Amino acid sequence: MGNINIIKLAEELNLSKSTVSRAFRGGSDINPQTREKILARAKELNFLPNHHASNLRNQKSKTIAVIVPEIANNFFSKAINGIEKVAKDKSYHVLIYLTDDDFQKEVAFVTNLSNGRVDGIIMSVSGEDQDHSYLQVLKRKKIPLVFFDRTYEDVETARVTTNDYQSSFEATEHLIKSGCKKVAYLVVNKNLSIGKTRMQGYIDALKKNNIPFDDHLVIDCSNELEKNKVILRNLFETLKPDGVFASVERLAIASYYVCHAMNISIPDDVKVIGFSSLEISPLLNPSLSTITQPAYKMGERAAELLFEILEKHEEEKEFITRNIVLDSELIQRQSSSLEPVAIR
Question: How far is CA 328 from CA 85, 292, 297, in A?
Answer without folding.
Answer: 21, 6, 11
